[in-house]
Fold each of these.
Amino acid sequence: MADQIVFDGRPLPVLPGQTVAGTLWEAGIRSWRTTRVARAQRGLFCGIGACFDCLATIDGVPGQRACLAPARPGMVVSSRHDPTNAEPPGTTASSGPISAARYDVAVVGAGPAGLAAAATAALGGCRVALIDSAAQPGGQFWRQRGSETGDSEVGGYRDWSVYAGLRSIVEERVDHIPNATVWFTEPGFVLHTTAGRLETVRVVLATGAYDRVLPFPGWDLPGVVTPGAAQALLKGSGVAVGREVVVAGAGPFLLPVAVGLAAGGARVNGVYEAGDPRGYLSRSGSLAGAASKVGEAMAYAAALARRRVPYRIRHAVIAAHGDASVSGVDIARLDNAGQVVAGSVQRVTCDAVAVGYGFTANLDLALMLGCATRVSADGGLAIMVGGEGQTSVPGVYAAGEITGVGGATLAVVEGELAGSAAAQAAGSSDPLSGRDLASLRRRRRRLRAFADAMHAAHALPAGWPAWLEDQTLVCRCEEVPYASVAAAVTDLGATDARAVKLVARPGMGWCQGRVCGYATAELTARLCERDVRRDDLVAFAHRPLAGPILLGDLSRPS
Amino acid sequence: MAMSQPRSATADVVVVGAGVVGAACAYYAARAGLRVAIVDRGSVAGGTTGAGEGNLLVSDKSPGPELDLTLYSLALWKELGSTLDADAFELERKGGLVVAATVSALETLRTLGTEHRALGIAVLELGPDDLHTHEPHLRTGLAGGASYPQDMQLQPILATAHLLRAAIRDHRASFYPGATVIAVELDEGGRVAAVRTPSGRIATPAVVNAAGTWAGDLAKLAGVDLPIMPRRGFILVTEPLASAGEAPPIRHKVYAAEYVDNVASEASDLQTSAVVEGTRAGTVLIGASRERVGFDRTFALPVLRRLAAQAVDLFPFLASVHVIRAYVGFRPYSPDHLPVIGPDPRVPGLLHACGHEGAGIGLAPATADLITSALVGAAPAVDPAPFSPERFAVASVAGEVDG
């Protein structure tokens, strides 16, 4: 008999390495959670653990993210849960020590930056722990299905040889702690993870980013997902998000997602880019070090053209329609100022839409540790770092997207720099194993300049708040409509994003503002007739707990 | 909402602080016909008000002046509920349930209950079995408890916002958010003349100090000492449990009998006692901890663990419920744990409305009523003597304040 899980009494076949969400999606199930106010249906949205829309009860433990949970044969998954009737109490976190000894360096996040940092610090002679929420190292960029070794050809992976090299060093020299999430940090440093407690002298944060989304009418319909969700579903579970898919938003990430979906058997009904990357692609061809990036974009564009997938710039999805799940989207043309051109709206049919506008850095731990922040080139919040990833907190380093979104190549360079700085602080005499620090730093500056130019070309469409209707949800978790956010400012005295959060509750739910934070900050600023400030963004990024924890687990002393 | 910068304004009274006490003072004073300006360095409910639970409790107070003020204040909250739309700020007459784990704790509870009944407060003594008809998910083996139907709950941020809105909309008060008071100007006679912020000056003969935990700083700007200090508390918030419109799994404000002792305690080290209640948003709030550690906002894991353990001990089902966030706040307390309400004899025109510790939400309307009576020269509805700032005017001369 084939491997199966049981969902609400119904057996579903499981492929090795799939997530629970992947298994449900493949079976045609688009929603498995009911919201508490509107009783609306929800399922996969962000696909990588940030939004908490895909919660399910798994083997009796409620509130599990189906997009993260590996589907194991025999698992019982339920869309319903009675909190007062959980017997026996579940557990998802251990409070015991992971290792008796203190680490020289603990790296959080095993994506490109974290892998590079861990490998560099280990080669520099440090005792290193690498903590990651996935089963396999690689992060979102080098995500693979379960324990399978990735195949660079089939999966469309970039820079696979870089990954293979880092991974082999990590396997030999680093304590890799998979399937573990850090939910609390204490100064000094103690990291409390779901796999246990860990002590370390230094921390390198490489916690990455997730898709940034802007609300629009219908964005809460099942089948509306982020590009990251579509990518994770494809790479991690081998499932195409739909048969007919629209990919939209802003940024170069839309291209590999669309190409991957087309290669994976979906029909891509269009890629709609809100920005205008033409100018920067021609200009930045001359930027040293950027040539390969431009070449990459051109190759994706050519792949789309071969499959006759329309690619439109200055277009955006401004509404989604459907009953039980999405059946079509409204596409509008945008003018130079990012406003919808009157009369340009067209309906495009689809059974899934992937929409995202760049990325939001995952700053929970950095803010918990007290690292200073800045507003970065893409308008989001980033950690302030020195030339080698030093944050404002002694002993804490940051690398990759949390220092400013810039892509995997830059993340690897930053990881190497932070790993070597941590190793040097630990007393290593040759932290870069003979490589030249100055040239690495030059490379970082070049790639950062390219990233900043890229953000300018893929800027958010300024007119997006005009897409909202009064009842369009801004906060998906707490089901806070735009009208309530507006009333908090115009009627109830809120003058910053924190006050809007207190008065109207956006960001108070399961995801703790991870999804609605950027949009609420910008809406607040516009309603107050001013620019977005750093404190508006911090109000939605600061979280005393970096993830939910069962009261039973919290109640056990460490 | 009318908001502007106070380049040059005049007012009959400037209320400093847009928390629940300041908003109530602004509303009552404006309703009495005074031209009111409210200033706050931040936005609405940004301090202790935004970090509370919204308790309107009689059950945790021993007989004395604070209980008298509370009984008056709760009557005013009910009145405000009908004037301002109780539903808009989630005013619920849900009742409190105090539970005792041991026979000796139960005896203490019974003694307090007898005193409460003598004051006309409704108290129901409950045996172990009665507890479960009130709260079906409480653990077994508790000694008993007491039910206080007069205890209420509201959403403190919304209550503040609606008081402020009514003051501005209906009674022409002005609100200046983002305006830090940098000076309280006195005239040559030593009376309040104006309040200055970086963006302007408001000429006024009266200032109400409703700056909460930071009230001592404002008093200093007027040249006087006021011993208001922070007492830190954490609250855990669970995932939403009940769907909207469904009965929540925890119906009352439920707390352990030890809480009453902790509230009145003089100790500076950590004290915790279980306080558990549901909210309209479906979440369960779990408190309460008390520590005197200054304004340290660091989340202390050992305290969070104790709060979790105590809540799970009362309600075992909570072990399988997620905490999704936590918040920290600072209760403003005075050395004798009574609020400071009324004119400061050292600076004519300066009135204090602060030092409510953990009871500011409940005591806000009565505080505002006393302040307004003092401003317009009306007879006070409750004896204000126990709350008078004069008690510290004497103490600070002796240089003796609780540190």
Amino acid sequence: MLRRVLASGLALCLASGAQAALAQGFGGGGYPQQTGEALYQGICQGCHMPDAKGAVGAGAYPALAGDKRLAAKAYPELVVVRGQKAMPAFGPSFSDAQVAAVVNYVRTHFGNTYTDSVTVEDVKALRAAVAGK
Amino acid sequence: MADEIRQSMSRRDLFSLIGTLAGSAVMYEAMSSLAYAGESGYAGPPNLTGDVKGASVLILGSGMAGMTSAYELRKAGYKVQILEYQDRPGGRNWSLYGGDIYTELGGATQNIQFDKGLYLNPGPWRLPYHHYGMLHYCKLLNVALEPFVQVNYNAYVHSTKAFGGKPQRYRHVQADYQGYVAELLAKSTRLSALDQAVTKEDREILLESLRRWGALDKNYQYTLGEESSGRRGYESDPGGGLTSAPTPSQPIGLQEILQSGLWRSIAAGSGYETQQSLFQPVGGMGMVGKAFGAELKEVIQYNSKVIDIHQDAGGVTVTYQDTLKGGPPRQAKADWCICTIPVSILSQIPINVGAPMQAAIDNLPYSPSVKVGLQFKRRFWEEDENIYGGITYTDQPNSTIGYPNSGYFSSGKGVLLGAYTFGPAAFEFTAMSPQERIAKCLEYGVKIHPQYIEEFDTGASVAWHRVPWTLGCAGAWTEELRAQHYDALCAIDGKIVLAGEHCSRIPAWQEGAVLSALDAIRRLHQRVLAA
């Protein structure tokens, strides 16, 4: 838990004020998982499901398996960092390396075979762009 | 004069005297100044008078907001109809009982095996004394309430990193923390360190109050003895006859208390929404939704999945699918629409509202939360540990162990709340299968109650992001989001107005849903009368 609290503090320092505020809405906090696989299985599959095929009820979670919107790497990067509609932003609680790792994992699994990868520098630049918006 | 009167009379006598002498207006003023009759956010049941001219209202969702709206509007003469996605009323007002079957998104199905009368409240579980709207409808619908215990001095506060991982009684940590704070403050006061903040006369009062508040001895010290044991309990309690002498208990050291971090958990019952008195419906929170649903059974149409909401000058047309019978989409029409669908879902449904409301719908994320109920073969927390209701807090991911606030001393099985999580831990619990969630709760819980291993029977869990009809626990407002979108979310857009906890300043509480509904129908009613 202490590790989590420290991680969260670190993530909040990196995040913009707006993101930090948003993080408070979820109680802040960070995640110990570091590899893309661990992050996906530890967090993302809660909604996108273990097979990344999403789910449908009164509303739906989009499938990430074979998702053509993943072709532009900035798109999933942005969604993870900033959130989208009801999906919370993970930018405040993920480190740059965690964002890169999970995006790269999803873009190379579940029938996705993209060869270009997201770097920590990409995530830094994206955060700066989002914060400056 | 007033002080003398107060010392020699009860407050009630005083009010009575003022009332007699000066009339009720003065009495009200006097009461208000002593905070006995202040204003609240709840203005009582709405009194929607006037000719509604046969107006009709279509309500989407039969949770607390939808049913409050339907009940009051019908009473005022409106034609009302509710479309509900599920096959039951209540929405997040919900209890899971033995025999229930719950399938979460992803397909995992749980056949709930709790014994008769035992339940898990997956969502709300307590009603604060000042949630007047909820309490009003409970009374109106004859929903029996019983005390919800928030603070149990004999439950535990637990940290894996303090006291060798051994749980501490709330009573010990609370009394010792308060005692040391009082002692330190008394010391500062006596060293004149506070002379700038406290007058000479008040100094003596402060010292006396600290002695009482912190259970200090005559030397203003918090130490082993009668005073401290009068709060934290004894090593051996006073008894009767020849074995009656008590042995006082040794307070934990100040440094240990501070470094343990356990002080984080002792203010949990001080918040406005968690201070006594709190209530829970007898038989589960879901009793409220059930009673409301029975009252409104003629107007609720279940198994109706809304797929389109369209308004024009003539009114509102909602297209929906009958999820039970299938067939082509159907339509329902009305002059007005109150939409209580969580915006996590509404943001996926075509709806022709203006850009500000659409932006509000599209920009509210939903917070995660997970609850796990664990049934044990016996109520060991009562039988072995004398814990009757209330809550244990831990720094482990399950965060909370909630003891049942009913059925005390019964000899059968009992259901504990084995986890109640928010934040990252809730996302991680959500990502697990129902079986894994229970396994994790047992792993964490056994560090507090070793009996878990021997006594575990069955369990159930609800991860709110996997609930098919909410996709999350509640709207996760921030100040920034509120500034941008809240007013637009709550405004009437043409013939459509939204309601629900997400349209309130007390998100995630049922009271927020009720108050948002009452506010929405008052404004809608004014439009109807003005038309």
